Description:
Elements: H1 5-11, E1 39-43, H2 74-80, H3 82-95, H4 97-116, H5 120-128, E2 135-140, E3 144-147, E4 157-163, E5 170-173, E6 178-181, E7 187-191, E8 198-201, E9 209-214
Antiparallel strand pairs: 1-2, 2-9, 3-8, 4-7, 4-9, 5-6, 5-8
Helix pairs in contact: 3-4, 4-5
Amino acid sequence: MHCANDLLKKSLSPVNANCIWRTDRSYFYLTETPGVSPGCINVSPCWFQQGHEVNNADVSCCPEISASLKGPQGVTIIKSMRRPSLLALAALRVMHPSLYWSSLRTTLEVGHWAYSSGQTKMYERIRHWALVFTGVAVMANHQSPAHRDPKCCPEWFDLMTSVSNYRSARMTLHNLGIELMYDSGVMVAVLRSAYPPCSGHADRRPMGVGMVHERQCS
Length: 218
């Protein structure tokens, strides 16, 4: 993700600004990895705006390329994510086959729509996209407060994985009273219908890069 370093650096907001904890500067730590800045960005080749009701007669609300992928580095960023993306893809195929096939059909349909509608930049990015999830949140050196993510169907998984080199990271599922080791390479899938408030920390050591894979369209 070195190619996304500038985007990560620009993503941080002042402390307590707009109550958005995902980009609140106070939850991030300096990194020991050269060329990687603390930050959080959303990556999607076909981003659906949340909170918008859509019906068959409404053609004004269409998927868009996320801001992080609209620039000249968009395809490069997608290609740099291929290895962890393929690992997440294989894990989902085993853990939740119906979600895997449903998401795959959705991605193919969106790709077909982008091609037939002349959305060449979107089609190019979908063509290199290795996931059936349509959205990924990339967080570098981030300590998450206790939170709950209720948006999405309860039957779907959020798939969280960690990359880079670090140790002593923990993920706490507060309602269940469970603390998981979240070292580099660990992958955690949480069913939305049983989503407890969770948090993550690394004993104030640099945490590396984490990815949260989210299905955003149906």
